[in-house]
Amino acid sequence: MFLTVAPPLCSSHTSTERSGDGAQSSGRTAERTMGYFPDFSIETWTLIVFVITLIAVYGYAPYGVFKKLGIRGPKPLPFIGTFLGYRKGIQNFDTDCFKKYGRIWGCYDGRQPLLAIMDTDMIKTVLVKECYSVFTNRRDFGLNGPLRDAVSIVEDEEWKRIRNVLSPSFTSGRLKEMYTIMFKHSTNLIESLHKKVGADEVIEVKEVFGPYSMDVVTSTAFSVDIDSINHPSDPFVTNIKKMVKFNFMNPLLVLTVLFPFLGPVFDKMDLALFPTDVIKYFYRFLQMIKTDRNKADHKNRVDFMQLMVDSQVSENNKNDSSLQKGLTDNEILAQAMFFIFAGYETSSNTLGFISYLLATNPHIQKILQKEIEETFPGKCEPTYEA
């Protein structure tokens, strides 16, 4: 057997080389570490950690409200809450929540807690019993443009002042005067439906009830006959369709939901959620009607626009308590614009849902038809009292 023993000098040399290799390896590791973590001072690192903590607190802080109250609901995500659930539509989102959590659940529009209620007694309390004392103000995302003075957006005393001016438009006497106008457009609607049925056309209820609602709103509120049932390509009709195509993924809305403090900034920049060209069109249209109403030969009108014009005060005297609490020029145009949008969408949707339910429940349709025939025998015209 042959055994080789290394001399001491060689052993020392080998150890030195290994030590040198270890030092170089440690140096390379340190360099890589420094590449991942910049060589900041302790103060800088403290500031970075503090900012990250603030962002985390901002993103998570609001989402414990309903958990503390014992109210169930979908799990919110940092910053955006349950806002992404609207991608599949508000109705589908609410239906899913109702099936999972019952008649009351909590969700979050961005950072804002939102309590959803389907209990009829509680809804009545909110909308009727306590409406004028506790639940007067409505949620406002901002980005309203000319609609910032609308009755659904203003708050507290401003809301009460505007509401008091508008309330006489909806008395039984005024509604009775509007009935003949509504009956005329209902006749046009029936004729239009008969034509479509006779031509064996597929009836898109939104395309039928939308123009009808628009004709009723413009006729009763402004004494303007658009006749959109027979003129579906009228600019008034096409612009209102653009207006109601609301996109919940609008970048401005998303930014306002995530960072509510940006809302006032966007308002100062005169940015709005609604298309600028549509807003300008309706503003010019309503301004033209209002200017025409200031003439003496229109003082006998009894519609919504004339009621507001008769109560008008100048913009400079808006805060003068000695004057009647009327509306300024901008407020009149805002109420008129809001009246168009709200009346069009709510009326057409209600009629559409009624038609769908009657079509899918023919036994209920027969009961309704029987009641109508008993109330108006011989196909006589319906009356306001009925």
UniProtKB/TrEMBL annotation:
GO molecular function ontology, one term from the record: iron ion binding
Gene3D superfamilies in alphabetical order: Cytochrome P450
First-tier enzyme category under EC: oxidoreductase
InterPro entries in the cross-refs: Cyt_P450, Cyt_P450_E_CYP3A, Cyt_P450_E_grp-II, Cyt_P450_sf, Cytochrome_P450_3A
Cofactor(s) annotated in UniProt: heme
Location within or outside the cell: Endoplasmic reticulum membrane; Microsome membrane
Tagged with keyword Transferase: no
Catalysed conversion reaction: an organic molecule + reduced [NADPH--hemoprotein reductase] + O2 = an alcohol + oxidized [NADPH--hemoprotein reductase] + H2O + H(+)
EC number: 1.14.14.-
Keywords: Endoplasmic reticulum, Heme, Iron, Membrane, Metal-binding, Microsome, Monooxygenase, Oxidoreductase, Transmembrane, Transmembrane helix
Protein task: Cytochromes P450 are a group of heme-thiolate monooxygenases. In liver microsomes, this enzyme is involved in an NADPH-dependent electron transport pathway. It oxidizes a variety of structurally unrelated compounds, including steroids, fatty acids, and xenobiotics.
Protein name per UniProt: Cytochrome P450 3A
